């Protein structure tokens, strides 16, 4: 199994001894120790984590091995179950009739970060003590490089959740006059989706607040050029007015 990339988050230790990471790279850990798993078992655990209410065995086999015959897919599922039902002393997969589900005893990083993203977006929590760590975790993709079709919609859901959280965090930091972390959050959102305008406006507003008028105008013109090249459209009236106000006051 691949080693975590530089800057990756560490396993969060809590009351649950089993931890599953889906953001960045797949990792399964027990009591803080990372455990290598066969690819089929990795994919099964990931599918069950994303389908919290469980998946029927036949549907799981079909989704995980769509290019195999039904009998071969069923055999692959049995093998993955054999490796993943219990890992060390932990029951990881529960069977309820023909339905499989991830055991509630397994902590999943995606669940925790979805909750964090929701709280940030709704403004329900104070600014984090370590903004950089939160931004780094929101910057993690859901199982990058995995080609499975059943990940497409889940990736879209996660991308929207983290974009809104990063933009909300950047706005809250800007309001609190914490300009450097505000820029870090906003530019991270821009890297995820360069076309989306919200974070670009925040970057311009932060530059203006810091008195960097030239930087604000340069960022606007770069974004304007990007939109023209990619979509042949212009920035919104809201952004144009922001820059017009800036030009008027200089």
UniProtKB/TrEMBL annotation:
The keyword Transmembrane does not apply. Residues 108-247 form the Bacterial transcriptional activator domain. It comes from the Bacteria. Keywords: Two-component regulatory system. GO terms for biological process: phosphorelay signal transduction system. It holds the Pfam family BTAD. The keyword Iron does not apply. This is Bacterial transcriptional activator domain-containing protein.
